[in-house]
Design brief:
The complex is a heterodimer of chains A (271) and B (319).
Chain A lengths: L8 E4 L9 E5 L3 H20 L3 E5 L14 H16 L6 E6 L2 H8 L8 E4 L5 H18 L8 H11 L1 E4 L2 E4 H8 L13 E5 L9 H10 L3 E4 L19 H25 L1
Parallel strand pairs in A: 2-3, 2-4, 4-5, 5-8, 8-9
Antiparallel strand pairs in A: 1-3, 6-7
Chain B lengths: L4 E2 L8 E8 L2 E8 L8 E6 L13 H11 L4 E4 L18 H15 L4 E7 L3 H9 L4 E7 L14 H8 L2 H9 L1 H28 L22 H9 L3 E7 L3 H8 L1 H13 L4 E6 L9 H19 L8
Parallel strand pairs in B: 4-5, 4-6, 6-7, 7-8, 8-9
Antiparallel strand pairs in B: 1-2, 2-3, 3-5
Classes of the chains: A alpha/beta (271), B alpha/beta (319).
């Protein structure tokens, strides 16, 4: 039993051979996690069929995991513990995928694995900007629901201090998580040594900072590839309706195939 | 059912991951065992379908499961095929795979030792739950959280013939023969269908619209409106089940009922027959999508309270 409480983990493994490597997926949060969920499941199954193991998990205190206090450090520890558990099944190389704000978690977890390739989907570059946008989306949600105008961001931040948490569109945001993420910048997650990084920005506000991020990391000796994706970021609201349009489905398939090929290529080049 | 694995288990919340066979698909579920003396009631938590997974928004289903475990009530939360950890592609249907998934999950709870079931369905999840639940005799109650009782648009709505078949079938006729309240509702429904049919025909004659041509939708009425699961709901209510329908004042799904004359009439018919069997709860705000933490807490209390009531135990029961 983990001292920090049990985590909900799904380990996808190839059925016909030992895995040639393993990927730990650090998911996004809140509504974005719901919207990303199936994509991550499909990626995991695609990679397993290509001979890789993929570990997906719910951060502590969220989803099906055990209740616990949330913070960027805590989530990073979760990612490292999951990676350790996945490696018990094979001694193969590891990699990390961060999606949305999970990019901040994945890039930190990477520090303990200097050789691990890092993949980032629609990365959140600035934690403070992430929360500014999340709180703004709350106002839009209230307008959509014809609800009374909710508290201002300033009032919300004051509540965060006094209550220790706030409600944002049906998700409980803990002060410990907010405070740790607000202080986090992807550009400052300095890779301690050259490593391979794949940035896959989606269409949306976050894409604007990706080229600068790539330039910063290249200046620090990293091998950075940027492959923009024809999908919208869609981080704040869970849409109604079941049908995934064919165009979206095709773009997702392309995104996942690019990630798979890049990852397999990275490990092939490093051998 | 494949080999179970422990998930997120702690000493307080023993939970088991299950992979259940639902037709050709594999449905993922989490079973939460009771931590005090078990009751004969099991609670099934059904999420809203697309873009959702077993824990539901903000882990509301997980929280309900763990609170129920303390009361000695086992529960199961699952992913429809094509959602969460399950296989397949999700299809928004009132029959077929979603109903099979709900049935499979109910059977898994029965296999775990539960003799009676309380089913909690969120939004769309309530609809296949009702359809699956009506075909069995082990249901004790249902909580439908902002269900789409009137589907937006006419697509997917039943034709007159389909609706007639929905009303006149073997299980319905059996209940008609044995249940007086249901008999009264049944003939009222039949009369209503006939009246609707006559009105449409008279309207066509008046406007000289050919019968083969679909009338244009108007602002007041939509072709094929009404409650697609009225018959099933009626049968559940008339046969002694507790059905609690929960809406928020600003839910679109509630507004659609108010805007649909036939749906409103149908609900009045149901409520007029057996008011004690159908409870209509309206919270202030938006319940749909569980987008408010305070309302989530009210819903959690409602579900755990109803489950406790159905077991006959007092709050904080300890053997």
């Amino acid at each position: 039993m983990r001292p920090d409480g049990a985590l909900f983990v799904v380990l996808h493994r190839p059925v016909d051979r030992p895995p040639s490597g393993s990927l730990t997926v650090c998911s996004s949060l809140f509504a974005e996690q719901h919207n990303d969920y199936r994509r991550e499941v499909r990626l995991a199954r695609m990679l397993a069929s290509a001979g890789l193991a993929v570990a997906r998990f719910h951060y502590r205190g969220l989803g099906n995991s055990a209740p616990a206090s949330a913070s960027l450090d805590a989530f990073t520890q979760d990612a490292l513990d999951v990676t350790l558990a996945a490696r018990l099944t094979s001694a193969s190389p590891v990699a990390f995928l961060g999606e949305g704000v999970g990019s901040l978690v994945a890039s930190r977890a990477c520090r303990d694995h200097p050789d691990a390739p890092l993949l980032l989907w629609k990365p959140v570059i600035d934690g403070a900007q992430y929360f500014r946008d999340l709180f703004r989306a709350r106002l839009i949600a209230a307008t959509r629901a014809r609800a009374p105008r909710p508290a201002t961001t300033a009032e919300l931040l004051a509540t965060l201090v006094t209550e220790g948490h706030v409600d944002v569109m049906g998700f409980r945001v803990a002060a410990s998580l907010h405070d740790s993420l607000v202080a986090a910048r992807l550009t400052e997650t300095v890779p301690r040594q050259p490593r391979r990084i794949l940035l896959q920005p989606f269409r949306g506000a976050r894409a604007a900072g990706v080229e600068q991020l790539a330039a910063d990391w290249r200046a620090r000796g990293c091998l950075v590839d940027v492959l923009p994706v024809k999908l919208v970021e869609d981080p704040w609201f869970i849409p109604d309706g079941a049908a995934v349009r064919a165009a979206v489905h095709d773009a997702e398939e392309q995104l996942m195939a690019n990630a798979r090929d890049w990852l397999l290529g990275s490990w092939a080049n490093s051998r | 059912m494949s080999t179970p694995a422990r998930v997120a288990s702690t000493d307080t919340f023993p939970e088991t991951a299950l992979y259940l066979q639902s037709g050709t698909e594999t449905v993922f579920a989490v079973y939460t065992s009771p931590v005090s003396a078990p009751t004969d009631l099991g609670v099934l938590l059904v999420h809203s379908g697309p873009n959702n997974f077993s824990a539901h928004r903000n882990g509301v289903w997980t929280e309900i499961s763990r609170r129920l475990a303390r009361e000695g009530i086992p529960s199961l939360r699952f992913d429809f095929a094509g959602t969460g950890e399950s296989s397949g592609e999700f299809v928004l249907r009132l029959d077929g795979q979603p109903v099979a998934d709900a049935t499979t999950a109910m059977d898994a709870l029965r296999a775990a030792g539960c003799r009676r079931l309380l089913v909690v369905g969120s939004c769309f999840g309530g609809i296949p739950s009702v359809v699956a639940g009506v075909a069995r005799g082990d249901l004790a109650g249902m909580v439908l959280v902002s269900p789409p009782l009137v589907l937006p648009g006419a697509r997917g709505m039943a034709s007159f013939r389909e609706r007639l078949r929905e009303v006149i079938n073997r299980p319905t006729l059996r209940t008609v023969a044995t249940n007086r309240e249901y008999r009264r509702w049944f003939f009222g429904r039949l009369a209503s269908l006939a009246w609707t049919r006559a009105t449409v025909q008279l309207g066509r004659l008046a406007s000289r619209t050919p019968a083969s041509r679909t009338p244009e939708p108007s602002a007041g009425t939509r072709p094929g409106g009404g409650l697609p699961i009225e018959s099933e709901l009626a049968r559940l209510v008339m046969t002694g089940n507790h059905i609690e329908v929960v809406f928020g004042t600003s839910d679109d799904n509630l507004a659609r009922i108010d805007a649909d004359a036939e749906a409103s009439r149908a609900l009045r018919r149901l409520r007029d027959r057996r008011p004690t069997g159908l409870v209509w709860t309206i919270f202030d705000g938006a319940v749909h999508g569980l987008e408010d933490v305070a309302l989530q807490e009210q819903l959690i209390r409602l579900v755990t309270g109803l489950a406790r009531d159905l077991t006959g135990r007092r709050p904080g029961y300890s053997p």
